Amino acid sequence: MRVVVADDVMLIRSGLARLLTDAGVEVVGEAADASELMRLVGLESPDVAIVDIRMPPGHKDEGLVAAREIRRQHPGTAVVLLSQYLEPRYAERLLADQPAGLGYLLKERVSDIAVLVDALRRVVERECVLDPTIVARLMQRRRPDSPLGRLTPRESQILRLMAEGRSNSAISAELVISERTVEATSAQLFRKLGLEPSADVNRRVLAVLTALRG
């Protein structure tokens, strides 16, 4: 897996690159700003770009803008955005696009490098991986007429864990139920959300999109 890391703070950028390298990930470039990030992605065609949301020159949403541009110009490159703070509005802007191959995590979550590496692998496989805190906040904003209101508590639990990027086996372990039960319950929630049978990853992504848009 080939990765580009973008963060304007050198210690964070270099430290993250070192941790990823030690974990067996190939870091093919480091960028301190959005323009350098775009240049590296165009040059190296990485599998995934790790991008800090707030980057120079304005330290507002330059990373988010660059991430959306990467997804437009280089659809084969997945993106994981990192944020210091919980900012649901940024997640909502990202979800306005196709969420497959997208991750959004709080920086505190990736202090465990295994969590980040797992997220990278999932987005490269075109899944959507969102921080549990962001998932919880967005799902609280459910509209009164949302199809999510038809879900049972168990189906809602499974959908929330899907949005966090959990596999069926991980959901099974978290909820202490069998994988077969996870699969059956997932099929039920897909039907309730009006998602026709298709590739499993596609339905999971569409279900997550429905959940987070409320």
Automatic annotation (TrEMBL):
Check the record and name the InterPro entries matching this protein.
CheY-like_superfamily, NreC/VraR/RcsB-like_REC, Sig_transdc_resp-reg_C-effctor, Sig_transdc_resp-reg_receiver, Tscrpt_reg_LuxR_C, WalR-like
- Residue ranges of every copy of the Response regulatory domain listed in the record: 2-122
Question: What positions are modified (4-aspartylphosphate)?
Answer: D52
Organism of derivation:
Kribbella capetownensis
Keywords carried by this UniProt record: DNA-binding, Phosphoprotein, Transcription, Transcription regulation
Q: What is this protein called?
A: Response regulator transcription factor
SUPFAM superfamilies attached to this UniProt entry: C-terminal effector domain of the bipartite response regulators (SSF46894), CheY-like (SSF52172)
> Transcription regulation: present as a keyword of the record?
yes
Which terms does the record give in the GO molecular function aspect? DNA binding
